[in-house]
Amino acid sequence: MTNESKPRPEIKVLMYHRVVDQAPDHPTKMHYVTTEDFKSHMQIIDWFGFTPITFIDYKLYKEGKLTLPAKPIIITFDDGYLDTFENALPVMLEHNMRAVVFALGDRTIRKATWDQEQNDSETYQLMNDQQLREMRKYGFEIGAHTMNHANLLDLSLDEVAYQVKCSKQQIEDVLNEQVYSFAYPYGAVDQRTQSIVAKAGFEFACGVYTGAPRFDDSVLDFRRLAVDQYTPLYKFLVKLLTPYQYLEWGYYRLKKKRTTQTRRVTRTMITEVS
C-alpha cells in the first residue's frame, strides 16, 4: 500500500504542561494538572482502549514500517518541566504509555521564568540533558520548542529561523539522533513560521487552536486539546470521547468571523463620522 493510499486515522493530540503534586493556593498563569488528576486521565485513556503513540510512530506508519494500534492517541508535554519527569513519567510507565515532550534548545535554561508571576519566589524547574535522554530511553519522543520559549510571531524572519533551526540542532546534539517534531510556544503560528519550520527539517509541528480539526490535515500545525486546571474530569471525558476538536474549531472560526465583522463595522462608522 502506498503512502497516498494509506487510510488516515482520526488521532486526538492532547497537550499538557505541568503535573504537580499539589495545586497552587493562589491564582497562577501556569498551566497544570495535579498528579492525582493525571493518574485519573491515564487510567481513563487505558480503560477506553486508547494507545498513546508518538509522531515518530506516525512517521513510520506513513512509511509503511509500522502498524498503528486500533485507537491511537498522542499525548504531549510542553516546555520540558522537571515534574514531567518526576510525576508524569512514573504514571505513564505504570500504564506502559509513552508521550512527546517538547523541550527548549537552550540547555542552560533551568527555570520556566515565563510562568512566574511578579514577585513570585517559586521557581519552575526544567529537565536537564540526562533526564531528557532517560525519557527517550523509555520510548518518549523529544521535540523542540524554540531556544528560549519565544513567541515567534513577535520576531523577525531571521530571529524565527534562529529559534527554530538552533533548537533542532541543540536537541539533536543532546539525543544524538534526528528530531522530527516541533511545538510553537503560546500556540503562536502563522504561514511564515510554518515555512521556516519545514525548511529546518521538521516533519511535524504542533500549535493549539489554529490547526485543522482533522488529524494530518495540517502536519505543521496540529490542533491539540489543552488539558489543564480548567479541565474537570467530565470535560476531559468530553474531549477524549467526542469530536470536541471539531466543535472547538467551529467555535473559534465563528469567533474570528464575528471579530472581523465588528472591526469592519467599526471602521465604516469611523469613516462616516470623519
Question: What is the compact description of this entry?
Answer:
With 274 residues, the protein is α/β, with parallel strands linked by helices. 40% of the residues lie in helices and 14% in strands. Helix 1 packs parallel to helix 3 and helix 5 packs across helix 6.
Mind explaining what this structure looks like?
By secondary structure, this protein is of the alpha/beta class. It has two domains: about 230 residues, Glycoside hydrolase/deacetylase (TIM Barrel, Alpha-Beta Barrel), CATH 3.20.20.370; about 30 residues. The chain has eight helices and ten strands. Strands 1, 4, 5, 6, 7 and 10 form a six-stranded parallel sheet that branches. It has a two-stranded parallel ribbon with strand order 2-3. A two-stranded parallel sheet has the order 8-9. Helix 6 links the parallel strand 8 and strand 9. Helix 5 crosses helix 6. It starts with 11 loop residues before the first strand and ends with a helix.
What are the key terms here?
single chain, 274 residues, alpha/beta, TIM Barrel, six-stranded parallel beta sheet, 10 strands, disordered C terminus
Described by the principal axes of the CA atoms, the overall outline is globular
Count of folded domains: 2
Mean pLDDT level: 91
The H-and-E topology, N to C, reads as EEEHEHEHEHEHEHEEHH
Range of strand content: 5-15%
Low-pLDDT segments? 268-274
- Give the helix/strand class: alpha/beta
Secondary structure: number of strands: 10
CATH level-four homologous superfamily name of the largest domain: Glycoside hydrolase/deacetylase
Distance between the termini: 64 Å
Estimate percent helicity: 40-55%
- CATH topology value of the largest domain: TIM Barrel
